[in-house]
Amino acid sequence: MALNARPQTYIQQPAVPQSPNRQPAKKKKRITKGEKILYTAFLAVCIMCALLVLQNQSTIQASTQEIQTIENSINEATKQNTDLSVQVSELSSYERIWSKAKDYGLKLNERNVKVVPGQ
Questions:
Q1: CA torsion angle for 38, 44, 45, 46 (degrees, to 10)?
Q2: In the chain, domain spans
Q3: How far is C-alpha 104 from the chain's CA centre?
Q4: pTM assigned to the model
């Protein structure tokens, strides 16, 4: 007991003050340089595809407008041709031709009349 009777001396370790400028532990990077390059390339390809789609859409729209303009002009020309055909048939009637001939002083001579087959 003699050894045990000795007073024990406590060795106190000096308290380590924590400095406020302590740097936090470095975190691992979530995205590597290679992944950044891949993401950037993928984004660039997506943007290029979107631009190509928009360009094709605008080309298609311009072509459609041009087609509609041409169709409208064709319809107008067809209508005008129909109107002119009606005018030709009205102006070439027998009665009208006979009245114009009388106005110019022409007379009907039965011996000089020749029948032309109709069209």
A1: 110
A2: 33-106
A3: 65
A4: 0.51
